Amino acid sequence: MEYTQFEKARIIGARALQLAYGAPPLIEVPKGVIDPLALADIEFTEGVIPIVVIKGKA
Question: Which helix (DSSP H) or strand (DSSP E) does residue 14 occupy?
Fold first, then answer.
């Protein structure tokens, strides 16, 4: 699915907040990655974040 830049930012931001509050990572954390935002970005790139965007009628 193709996301707008705003949807992508919202998804990554929400996941980074979850990680910052102690949620377990959904991937094996690469060595040296400690920033929740960077980890959320990697999870988004790999397509493992369980957040769905429901697009309404415009």
Answer: helix 5-20
51 in a structural domain: no
Give the chain's domain count. Answer: 1
Phi, psi of 39 (to 5 degrees): -65, -40
- The alpha carbon of residue 4 and the mean position of all alpha carbons in its chain are separated, in whole angstroms, by 14
- pLDDT above 80 for 25: yes
Q: Which secondary-structure segment (H or E) carries 47?
A: none
pTM of the predicted protein model: 0.88
What is the Cα–Cα distance from 52 to 28, expressed in whole angstroms? 22
pLDDT computed for residue 55 by the predictor: 83
In a domain, 57, yes or no: no
